[in-house]
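User: We ran a pulldown and think these components assemble together. Before we commit to crystallization trials, I'd like a predicted model of the whole complex to look at. Sequences follow.
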Amino acid sequence: MSKNIKLRKGLDINLAGKAEARLEVAPMAKSYAVSPLDFENVTPKLLVKVGDKVEAGSALFFDKNNPRILFTSPVSGVVSAINRGEKRKLLSVAVEPDQQQVAKAIKVVDTKASREEIVEMLLESGLWTRIVERPYGIIARPDAKPKAIFVSAFDSAPLAPDYNFILKEEKAAVEAGMALLARLTEGKVHLSARKNAEGFMSEVKGIEYHTFEGKHPVGNVGVQIHHIDRIAKGDVVWTVNIQDVAIIGRMVLSGKLDMSKTIVVTGSEAQKPCYKRIIAGAAVESIVGKVSENVRIISGNVLTGRTTAADGYISADANQLTLIPEGNVYELLGWAMPRFHRFSVSRAYFSWLCPKKEYKLDTNLNGGERPFVVTGLYENYLPMDVYVSYLLKACLVKDLDKMENLGLYEVLPEDLALCEFVDPSKIEMQQILRDGINLMIKES
Amino acid sequence: MGLRKFVDKIKPTFSEGGKLGFLHSTFEGFETFLYVPNTTTKRGAHVRDCNDIKRVMIVVVLALIPTMLVGMYNVGYQHGITAILPAFWYGFVETLPTIIVSYVTGLAIEFAFAQKRKHEINEGFLVTGLLIPLVMPVTVPLWIVALSTAFAVIIGKEVFGGTGMNVFNPALLARAFAFFAYTPQMSGEAVWYADGKTGATALEQLASTGEMQWSVMDAFIGLIPGSLGETSTAAILLGAVILLFTGVASWRIMLSVFLGGLAFGYLFEFVGVADTAIDGIPAYYHLLVGGFAFGAVFMATDPVTSAQTNTGKWIYGFMVGALAVLIRVINPAYPEGMMLSILFMNALAPLIDYFVVERNIARRKKLIKNVK
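Assistant: Here's a predicted model for the assembly, 816 residues in total across the polymer chains.
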């Protein structure tokens, strides 16, 4: 019997630029790229050079800390660029696709194979990088023994994609993917859907099924874990995005790697927001076309996504592109004005008067950074038993014991994104937490 | 936008390396006051709530205005002027110098520290600067105001690292400094009326005689002697409504301060343990006279110096209210128990939070045992 969990805390930010339930197929991009920066704590070591021919699924680089983890090309073609930043830091490896796409022959196994064979298949295909390990939000370590695997079947972030729409033809693939994941853990595989929008999720067999209701961040897998089976010190759990489960399942069913996926293009600056069929890592220009200069392209949602250049590529983990206006303008006496066009959770402004209004928010910080002043606010936007400001202060003073005691293992930056959004002190909470997590990884 | 062009034109002069580069923070303070900066989000959430600390602080100032206005009228009224406008004007003229001295002294120090630390200027003093004249006796000499403001800002706030880091409420610290350093000017018969007329505050009279000389209605509206901010419970409640509606102040603290005060008020009303004049007065008197209501609404709720956890706020607030009444009743030498009790609880607030957070940690540690 499944359990319904209702969360009261959180916030749904009503943004303009919602996508229509319409699917377009994006044209083949001029190039596709894989970036080590889309993953935490990866030290890349290149396996290819410019001009090399690769197939879809050929490894482009691996992680020096964990040499079994391969990052593979989503398409077949020729390595066209190896982009480096300061100190020769690897930014991305770009591949120019062939007309005729060829997938690398991978030894595809199904659930009857041994765990080690399944792990090997996922590593070889590069799909292993889609499994996230908590604590820390890193790529799963192949030799770790997770106590459970968690999958969230919905995303509650602003303008997030509707996975029931994206996956409506992929029930078999989701089921095959979930079955395969079940072989990776001796514990349970948990699947959580949004109540009253469950799609076919309740019919998936062999898993522990939950429903959630509430506001964002109810769809965050970290919040769900907190309410299903909390992470204690020493625990390891894995999480996988639901569309990635389908991609894994598709490989098991069809016998070959296919990195195509559906993303949603949203935001007030997007022309005709809708769903797009793309191949992972596509150049954003192939998806959204030319974008005017004063628009920010975000791989992901407005709370946690990565800023992407107009000539950049969609992040590996993004199922969404959001286009919003840059807010690099001065506002005369803004802090004293009624500001009807801006959104605030505080009733010091007037958003509460029009709860149904869609807001066209820009990227202005709306104030200067200040020390922690307000209290009791952040906890209203994180439905977890975690004292946000205490945890962040522990991160700031680099007190590892306190960080551990105050819940560092249970949260990832994405879980604090709403707290960061509402904070009148404009503190960079996600970055502070990420630095804290990285320090913890380094010290342990 | 001529103004924006002017600001952009003079900006290089005040930037690092410019002729007036040493006034960098001051310039920035005025610029961000005029214009919300064009800074965009670099890391983390790409969009942000439009609320900022300036707005939070300005809401508090707004909530203080009714109290200030009624207080000014009352100064004239206590002086024997009954017509509304002349009474208000008299009070305005009497109190304006105190307000100016408090703001000028405090802001000058704030700007200097911001400059030295290369910080942006914090808005906290916008509130503190108004709170100080509101809690001082009207007749207080201006040099005392300047001295205690300087003490509160430097020793109370800046030595701890500025706004957000201070342990004690700066405005109360200013009053406490003045109270203990210059007791004759701050208490007793001399404190209240302006211009030669003197007399004790309502609370002091209540403390020494146990009799309320004013009607409950006068005490509620604020037509009784007392500091500028403390007399009008009605105006304070209006401020409370603003603070609670906007969510700027914690309703948990406010409610629990009143609960704590009433609980101990009733205890002394019906049980009566102390042998003092004020023991046994109706409990609600405590809420009407002196700084109780003002402290509960504007001082105890200061987010920086109060308890930060929700559970902690209940405990902190209740103890502020209870201690205030306790001090008033047990020790009539310090009739203004509210000031002392809030300062005392400011010191204890981190300890309360410590125990609340420890329980959170204990819950988390229990998870480990369950697994094994």
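The mean pLDDT of chain A is 93. That may be worth checking against your pulldown data before setting up trials.

User: Thanks, that helps.
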